[in-house]
Amino acid sequence: MKKLSMCLAIFLLFLSGCSAGTKNNSQRVGENSLKSDWKEITASAKGSKVNFFMWGGDEGINRYIDEWVAPQLKDQYNIELKRYPMDAVEFINKLKTEKRANKKSGEMDVIWINGENFKTAKQEKLLLGPFTSKLPNFQQYVDTQSDDINYDFGFPTEGYEAPWGKVQFVFAYDSNKISNPPKSIDELQAWVKQNPGKFTYPAPPDFTGSAFIRHVLHEKSKDYNAYLSKYDEALLKGEADQVWNVLNEMKPSLWREGKSYPQSLSQLEQLYKNGEVWMTMGYDEANASNLIKTGEFPASTKTFVLDKGTLSNTHFLGIPYNAPNPDGAMTLINFLLSPSTQMKKMEIEYWGENMSLSVERLSDKDRDIVESIDRGSATISQEELSSHRIPEIGAEYVQWLERGWMENVANK
Amino acid sequence: MVKRIKSPGIITVFFVMLFSLFLLLPFVPLIIWSFTKYWPWPLLLPEKWSMDSWRYLFSASGRAGEGLFNSLIVAVLTLVGNMVLGIPAARVLAQNEFRGKMIVFSILLAPLFIPYTVSIMGMYDFAIRLDFINDYLSVAFAHLIITLPYFVATIWFQFRLIGAKYQEAAASLGASVSKIFFWIEWPLLLPAVLLGSFLVMVISFSQYLPTWIMSGGTMLTIPVVIFPFASSGNSSIVSAYSLLFFVPILVLMLVYFLLMRINSRKQFINRGEDIAIRTNKHSNQ
Amino acid sequence: MQLEQINIQINNESIIHSIDLKINSGEIFVLMGPSGSGKTTLLKGIAGLLPFTSGKQTWENGTGTTGLVFQEPRLFPHLTVLENISFGLKVRGIPAKERKKAAREFLKNLQLDGLEKRYPHQLSGGQQQRVSLGRALILNPDLLLLDEPFASLDTTLRQDLIEWLYDLQRKLSFSILWVTHYLDEALSVADRIGIILEGRLQQIGTPSKIFQNPDSEKIAQFLSLPNRFSKEQWSNWFQGELNVLPTLNRGWIDPNHLQLFAGEYNQDEDIREEFTCMIPAIVTKVRPSREGYSISVLAGNQSLDVNTTGWKRVPTVKEKIRIRVPFAQIHWYSE
């Protein structure tokens, strides 16, 4: 018995010893990092470990981080990168709890956020502070003046997060079944009437479904740009009825006569895979190509954007207020914003997602490479995408629309 | 009589087969799904097969080894905690009568009945307070709270089954409390300890939220690795991971049956001889 | 071993009240009592499994050891016969080699040679109980405590084992405190008998003393003594004062000593010299027994049992008969 408890005690000591090694590696307090210059930051980040918390539900993205970014970071900066799979909502909640408990040193160095999560994080002071101006790659390659960098769903970023990538909303269709896809919401409405049961959209507040109804708003609104400034409920109230009208007119010709909607994008994609509907959509221009590659979508799948444009948003990287290794975090983010890292991200082999850098700011050589990157058969050209881009609107409008859809469309 | 024991009835065979089919059936789609990315509904078999999910599983991103390792460490720590706390607790509850026994018993079993969300909410707070403790230990601690009722109930039941008669006999032969435990109770308890340990490890293996909360998402056990894929509906990857997940459980099951055999070999050796003795017993005396 | 003023309480309930008992060395003392009378509690107390609430336990030579054998064998199911028997030696820290040797030798006494490697479930009930006895006896206890050790065995096996244990005891000469509720078991081994009722030791004595002079009606009732009647009843039947000590107010007579007569009158009755009486009665029940018949009769409103030996004619139910009672055969005791 005594021997056993001795062994146990030694084992426990051993374990706690391990933990001391991993947990106390925060070299400097975050605020100091914000005051340091880049040389100091990279110097201090050398040999450290960075914990990257990000959504982990995609093999391609995970492999991009683990198989490409991590070894490169180790080679170039001697930084060990560890990816932890976690949904944004969850790590924001975790940060909230830690803030409430006044926890000075957390576990997360870099988090992948945007939109609502960023707004919450910034408002509740869960982020370290403005840091993007320190990053050489941000300064050199990012279009620091553009709205989609300075605003995240209508909320000013103010340097609290660095743009990692951009996605654009596209519709996907089976070119074997549809030869001439609709180019506007009006045309879509007509198409749905002619092909009853072959179209539907995920029920808001699903992220994709919610974005779909914003496209209706965009097309019906007299002045969409008005939504980009301060929240004004009256503005939306005045125009919302037109949105409900379009959706309600569509309803009888939707899949299952609009009596039920897919609850998520994956359900809609399932319907598309099964051939029950002929069109799907998504906030990722490379998604269809990815799914063709894995064999889930038929090879005849193509994508299109509306003539008046489709929504695009930027997703960002942030540093929590209690990051144990803010220097390492900044070094990592800077590395993720380098042209070669961003171009690798565009390859369909890993992720296939658009870069957050401005193509104009790249060197000629890099620009040629970008143009030659294989983004998959279904992905439309960079040029067509960027010329059909509309910005996202504020979270209050989004939520109001989601609630309104429940009242005025779903329950009617 | 003897014949009936040797050849089970057709009905028994039928039900055993039905039962095994019922247990094995879910594995078939799991195996198929793990080898394809796309298997739409009416198709009996997928049209396109792929090793991608398995390749991913064993790539640097797959974290299969890390997940298994962490799951195992946590499960073993949880088991140690159960042994140290659960066996004495079960012993006291089974053999002693005292005031408030029912209260202690219900507190011990409470995690079985209290809604999961309630205990999870408390756990967040707990996690922050226990932050200074190593992640393995704090996660194992959460698992301990969840598994202890199962373990205690199993051991308690066996203690009740053994009763006090052997202990009394041993005491009348001069054995001290510790000798009674190690020489009499422990060997008699062993089948229940094995079953309880198996339960504890399997339950510990399958915990997601408590692991996640106590470690702040940094303890990558198998369920934590699987979860993002499950929530994004990646059937292929989830299937591959699930199959991998069954490996330790299968190994545990084998170990369990092996240990049970070794333990019972002593007591139940030579059934045939036993019958012979019984028929001869009158001539022996 | 001597007990003085022993009290045992369990959960504030008094089970054993002020018991005084001395057991001499080499003696078999049989403790009898109905279930719930506290026999087992007293045994566990003496064995040290239960604490005495008050009282003193002393031994002739300062200290002494006990061995306890339960009604069921309680063999350790995971240990072999040899390991079971040598368990007590293992507890005492005796090396494996020695205790195995000792246990093996002891198996001969137990008539269990060749079974040392068996597990308890591979033994018959009688063998199991012998192992259980051996497990206690190998420690050479000064006092062996037996708690109805053969009660769960069938009659012939029980008798065999009683015989065997009796012989073993005479050979090894340890003392035994033997709890039983079987009269035949008690009578065949007991040097002395003690009667315990409701936690109190009522009477101690040799078997014959206990039967001939039970200390109270309660004891007589527990011993199921037949044909127990009050002195007044006997006086009525004998039609006169009886020459008995005034303190002895009850009497019983064995059914074998009663004689049965058919019809209204028989010459033989008057020829007897002994002091007897004749009781007219009606036969209510007739059962055959080994010796003859066991007959129940009703005399007035009192029921009596009569045994006949070699009686030619079997009385029939409702037949009118008479019973002759020899006064000298009545055992008198006090209520």
TrEMBL record, chain A:
Gene3D superfamilies named among the record's database cross-references: Periplasmic binding protein-like II
Q: Which InterPro entries match?
A: SBP, YnjB
Q: Does the keyword Signal apply?
A: yes
Give the source species: Neobacillus novalis
Q: What is this protein called?
A: ABC transporter substrate-binding protein
Keywords from the UniProt entry: Signal
From which residue to which does the signal peptide run? 1-20
UniProtKB/TrEMBL annotation, chain C:
What are the GO MF terms of this UniProt record? Answer: ATP binding; ATP hydrolysis activity
- Domain ABC transporter residues, every copy: 1-223
Keywords for the protein's UniProt record, in alphabetical order: ATP-binding, Nucleotide-binding, Transport
Pfam families associated with the record: ABC_tran
InterPro entries (alphabetical): AAA+_ATPase, ABC_SmlMolc_Importer, ABC_transporter-like_ATP-bd, ABC_transporter-like_CS, P-loop_NTPase
Protein name, entry field = ABC transporter ATP-binding protein
Q: Which organism is it from?
A: Neobacillus novalis
